[in-house]
Amino acid sequence: MEAASVLEVRGFTKKFGDFVAVDSLSFKVRRGDVYGFLGPNGSGKSTTIRAVFGLVEPTEGEVRLLGRPAGRPGGREGVAGFVDAPGFYDYLSARDNLKVLAAADRRKGEPPMARVLETVGLLGRERDKVKTYSTGMKQRLAIASALIREPEVLILDEPTNGLDPGGMRDVRALIRRLNEEGLTIFLSSHLLAEVEQLCNRVALIGHGRLLAEGTIAEVVGGDNGRPGYRLVVDDAQSALRILEGVTGASTVDAGPSDGLGGEEIKLAVGPEGPGPVVRDLVAGGVAVLALVPARPSLEDLFLELTEEPPLTPNKDARTRGKSREESV
Amino acid sequence: MIRWELYKLVRQRRTLFGLGATALVPVLFVAALEITQQGPPEGEAPFATQLLDNGLAVPLVTLAFATFVLLPLVVAFVAGDAVAGEVSAGTLKTVLSRSVGRTELFLSKAVAVGVYCLAAPAVLAGVGLVAGYLASGFAPLAGLGGTPISVGRGIALVWGGAGLVSVPLMALAAFAVFLSVTTQNSVGSGVGAVVLVLLLRLASGLGLAGPLDPYLLTNQFEAWLNLTRDPIAWEPIVRSLWVSLLWGAFFLAAAWVVFMRRDVLS
To answer: For residues B21, B22, B24 and B30, what is the CA-based torsion angle, rounded to 10 degrees?
Structure first.
């Protein structure tokens, strides 16, 4: 067994009758990772996380947590988190809910209640019944319920779901901080910008199968390492002619630019960077309206790999090439 | 876990509602007696003729009456919620994601439901005693065989009766828990258990069960009345205990098997 792997999914398959929810899924989360688990709704994410918690029995394959089979007694020691919208006893206070869960942890001694409540920003509201909580507060209580277990591995299923932008920012900051404190974090999300911000490694699944896995750079970059740019000019015809003469530069396509006026050219440049391109264009009398690095985003990859056949024949109506700056 | 299962049970409205309804029955019964000054006709219920002038008859009559519908109903709805309620609230997955094993959680729930099966008839007995005493005081009772029962023995009889009634109630609760685990529908499980009671009573009433009649679960609810005979008729009491235990053990075991194997999907 590789010591550094804290969560390992090996050939996990789950069938419900004839329906294959997850199909031979394998990946590894290493100690210290913030691991993003991506996939569209219905792709098998939740079923996989349920198997991690031993809530569903694999049809084939296995899930190991810290080297132990997840579904066996003691298999979840050192691991905490939640799957789907977390459920609480809404007729009890937040504090009582945490106490029930601490009892279910067979924990000896008092859980670090006050510290955890403060961490998630619920200190002072812990005696209120959960039924009075907003969605965002329940989400924070869910994180608190995981933290009172004082785990090594934190498994969070769409932890910013239902939070307002401020709440999302707080939770992301919290995830970063917990990771810096040494927790390994396994994070399912379909907020791709969130995953790009937080995660060092990702697995992307669709229809229950693994589509891509690795660091974000590996996953989105593929083997094309050349930096890409979006170039907006006033005269694309002249610009393309000039660019043919610039060493290392190659254009991908040209079209109208949205919002900036002028025309947009997708461009890859040589080892000298974009400097020569701008110099030659300006010298050739072409006005450069914008030159923006267009890193391939996780969203591009996500849509490319998971895209369903379009509902309408007008496939290109969908803006697929949104760059990272534009996405939320 | 048992402690917390009990705590959760006490804090739920459905539990208190059931116990409240149970407590209300003797009170309403005594109030009705006071207003009408008329007991049920003779032969309608044991001890009915003594109701107006002996408060000790009140808990006995209400207990006999409550075993027909009220107690099975109250217990069925609490037991039917035991697992299904947690599935629909999404709390089952929350708890099972922790260290606790399924068997331990299941047994804790079974114990909590068992305690409720003891509590409901006990509430009925306690409130019945108080209400009866306040209405007409206590006097020695005429027992079923005709021999008089002293006040002290009468009180012991009420508690003994409540205790004996709780055993078939637990068996019924086990059936409701089984439905709760398999259907994951709280109300449906409660209704299902009540329907079982009605069907068994119907089968017994129409004589459909033949030689099996003494072993129907619903026929165990009246066994406690044999405590009031002199000498006590132990044979039907003992049969009630083991028959109830068999019913209960069967459904509890079945519920456990399903609970252990079932994927938690909501």
So the answer is: 150
Residue A313, CB-side half-sphere exposure with 13 Å CA sphere: 0
- From residue A129, alpha-carbon distances to A94, A96, A179, A213, B241 in Å are 6, 9, 30, 42, 41
The residue to which tokens 């408060």 are assigned: B55
Complex-level ipTM: 0.88
What secondary structure, in 3-state letters, does B198-243 show? HHHHHHHHCCCCHHHHHHCHHHHCCHHHHHHCCCCCHHHHHHHHHH
A92/B263 CB distance under 8 A: no
Cα–Cα distance measured from residue B108 to residue B115, given in angstroms and rounded to the nearest whole number: 11
Q: With contacts defined as CB-CB under 8 Å, which chain A residues touch B8?
A: 89, 92, 100
* Tokens, residue B218: 């619903």
Strand-pair category, A68-69 with A209-215:
unpaired
H/E stretch holding A119:
helix A113-119
B9 contacts in A (CB within 8 Å)?
Answer: none
Please give the Cα distance from A62 to A56 (Å, whole number). Answer: 11
Contact A87 B8 (CB under 8 A): no
What chain A holds in terms of domains, given with CATH numbers, is 5-221 (3.40.50.300), 228-293 (3.30.70)
* The pairing of beta strand A68-69 with beta strand A288-293: unpaired
B contacts of A53 (beta carbons < 8 Å): 93, 96-97
Q: Phi, psi (5° rounding) for residue B265?
A: -110, -10
- B7-33: b or e for each residue (b if 16 or more CB lie within 10 Å)? bbbeebebbeebbebbbebbbebbeeb
**Mind telling me how many Å the CA of B99 is from chain A's nearest CA?**
5
Determine phi and psi for B221, rounding to 5 degrees. Answer: -70, -25
Specify whether the CB–CB gap between A241 and A231 falls below 8 A.
Answer: no
CB contact under 8 A, A53 and B105: no
A185 and A193 in contact (C-beta within 8 Å)?
no
Distances (CA, A) of A8 to A24, A66, A67, A218, B38: 13, 8, 8, 20, 75
Residue A144, helix vs strand vs coil: helix
* A83 contacts in chain B (CB < 8 Å): 93, 97
Q: Which pLDDT does position B53 carry in this prediction? A: 85
Q: Which residues fall within 8 angstroms of residue A238, CB to CB, at 6 or more apart?
A: A284, A285, A286
pTM beyond 0.90: the answer is no
Which of the four pLDDT bands, split at 50, 70 and 90, describes residue A222? Answer: low
CB contact under 8 Å between A76 and B99, yes or no, is yes
Specify which residues A288 forms β-bridges with: A233
Nearest to A297 by CA among A232, A184, A220: A220
Tokens of B68: 């027909």
Burial class (CB in 10 A: 0-12, 13-18, 19+), A314: exposed
Note the pLDDT tens digit of each residue in B116-154: 999 999 999 999 999 999 998 999 988 777 788 899 999
B32-82 residue pLDDT tens: 988 888 766 666 667 888 888 899 999 999 999 999 999 999 999 999 999
Q: How far is CA B258 from CA B34, B66, B181, in A?
A: 50, 32, 7
Q: Which of A192, A211, A199, A206 is nearest to A322 (CA)?
A: A192
